[in-house]
Design goal:
about 5% strand; two-stranded antiparallel ribbon; globular; single chain; mainly alpha; about 290 residues
Length: about 290
């Protein structure tokens, strides 16, 4: 018989995993929903964000929150270089060409980071303000920092919807994602808008990586580890769907955490089973496409 307290702990772990997956998947969905680009290098941007936060906190600013901002800015600038210098040239090509190009950058960025930092693992402590636990019952508690990251993922979803639905720039982004040619005829600088959207998506990946740094070991392989699950999330939720990315991330997080309670190793298998079922029975995803 499974211990109730253990199940509760695994649910909390699953929610924590889901929150981290969402912070990378939302940027992936934003870029695909607006630019129609499958960016396989998004996991590497997440990894760079984690390293940027570690370097900033340990060797420069010494403050976790400033480190998060530094990570977002650094990764945003890296994303702009990738988009303006390379990815922009394959907008009108097949998704396979986009995947091949961005996968090349996965290899390049991973080797660059490995050369600079080595292959060992790195970690930083959560901010002192959040180094306590929130007790629900005698046997069930959640570290405050994990709770913060979960709340931050919900806030990120709400903020993105707020900007896209209620601001002029949001309306321009939605119009451009619907009809790029018409937007260009109306005077919208589409290349500049695309660069801005890619910057925002990259910033989200960088902040997600920074938030992950106190929760897991950071290695040059971190990007490769998360991008597969992130793609599973967006496939299950629906490519371009922010709500789908949110639901999919938490479903995958719970499957990873709870699967091991059923059968050893099932936590790594169940996300792929879920993706196969969605592709077979609802190939457009649970929430069926872009919301931008």
């Amino acid at each position: 018989m499974v211990d109730v307290g253990l199940v509760g702990d695994q649910i909390i772990t699953g929610l924590s995993i889901g929150s981290r997956l969402f912070l990378i998947a939302i940027g992936l969905s934003l870029i695909f929903g607006v630019l129609d680009v499958l960016n396989f290098a998004h996991g590497s941007l997440y990894m760079i964000g984690a390293y940027a936060a570690i370097v900033a906190v340990q060797n420069a600013v010494g403050n976790f929150w400033v480190g998060v901002l530094v990570a977002g800015l650094v990764v945003g600038l890296v994303g702009v270089v990738l988009e303006a210098g390379f990815i922009r040239r394959v907008y009108d090509r097949d998704h396979l060409d986009q995947l091949l190009l961005t996968f090349a950058f996965v290899l390049i960025l991973t080797d660059v980071v490995r050369t600079i930092f080595g292959s060992g693992s790195n970690v930083i402590n959560p901010p002192a303000l959040l180094q306590f636990t929130i007790d629900f019952t005698d046997g069930l508690a959640i570290p405050a920092y994990r709770a913060f990251v979960i709340v931050a993922s919900v806030a990120a979803l709400g903020l993105l919807f707020l900007v896209l639905r209620t601001t002029n720039i949001g309306r321009v982004v939605r119009a451009t994602s619907s009809d790029r040619e018409m937007a260009s005829l109306l005077g919208i600088n589409v290349p500049q808008l695309y660069t801005g959207v890619f910057f925002v998506g990259s910033v989200l990946a960088g902040i997600g990586g920074a938030f992950a740094a106190p929760l897991q070991a950071v290695t040059p392989e971190l990007g490769n580890q998360v991008i597969i699950n992130a793609f599973i999330v967006v496939v299950i939720g629906g490519l371009g769907s922010f709500t789908g990315a949110f639901v999919g991330a938490y479903v995958i997080g719970l499957l990873i955490a709870l699967g091991s309670l059923v059968v050893a190793g099932a936590g790594q298998l169940l996300p792929f089973v879920a993706m196969i079922l969605v592709l077979v029975f609802k190939p457009q995803g649970l929430f069926g496409g872009a919301e931008t």
